[in-house]
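Section handout 9: paired folding examples.
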Amino acid sequence: MCVLKPLINQDQTFLTTNNVFSIVLQGVADPDLKFIAVEVGALGKEGDGGIFCRSKTKTYFEQNAMGLPRTAPLPDASASIHYFMPGDAAYPLNPYLITLFSGAPTRQQQIYNYRHSRARRCIECKFGVLASRWRVLKTTIATSYLQPLYCTMQ
């Protein structure tokens, strides 16, 4: 979310690589486009993966505080598979968060990358719906004080 220049000593930490002051809004959505986790308030200069590594969302997934099933059998198979969420390349690879294959992927890896990208559409669509519903998120928010904005988003 873009914001006017913060009135604090560390205002450079809110600058993105595009020289825009911002705070970060990260979320996890289910297939029904419902947020199941939201993180708000990280500095715009920070990377998504680093923000996630320090987030409550990461802790919830690691401790299974969200009550997600650990494994489930595949249809018509005896093998079970872990539940996971798809993330982009900025996020760390771990048992509950998987990313795309990089470099020159094989044909099977290309198919996986395509399906992975389709699965990530849930969160992309959710943020589109959020920005359409709350159009202020598409603009530079006219506040120099981030605390009220942070409280509003929480």
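Moving on to protein 2 of 2.
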Amino acid sequence: MVCLGAIKNESALSQLQKDKTILTIAFKKDFIELENQVLALEEKQALQLSDNVNVFDVGTTYESEKTRLKDLIDAKVKLHKEAIANFETSYIAKNIDFLTTFQQYSSGNKDLIKGIQDKMDKVQVVLTAFS
């Protein structure tokens, strides 16, 4: 019976690792994307300052683009914090479920082992009586 719990736990651990990898990759992709946007914005600003030419799209400025990127970064941070919180909550619940199941199997196995020991004791008494 405990073997079933171990298989379930291994599957949960495997899923945990996959989910963690997915979250990590998503975070790294977002970080790289945002880093590239910030670097591109800084390059535009440096070009504009050095050549005194407007390199921003009509209706945008360095400050408005900086604000847009800050809002985008804040939104991504919020999204990743929520994903991490959901990830933690999900696996806490799964761990509680596993431990509950494990305790149930463990209790069942204790009763089974006690029953087997009692029967072995009876057999030993009979063997002792015949020796």
